[in-house]
Amino acid sequence: MNMPLLTYADEIESAVLVIHGEKAHSRYFGEDAFKKLKGDNKELMIIPGANHTDLYDNMEKIPFDKITSFFQKYLK
Hints:
Elements: E1 16-21, H1 27-36, E2 42-47, H2 54-57, H3 64-74
Parallel strand pairs: 1-2
């Protein structure tokens, strides 16, 4: 890559919902990215007991209600 992914993360003004599994191997990256975001329209969700692939298609682990409420609040 020519540019580190998080270089301009602090310039994002749009709403951001970061969702990661508690046991995901990449959880640290989501948490680091979230720390760089600014504003009141950002949220980090760590899903208890979920790993990386659980959030692809495990319908019982995916927080659809939270995703829906976040979109309804910020994407008007």
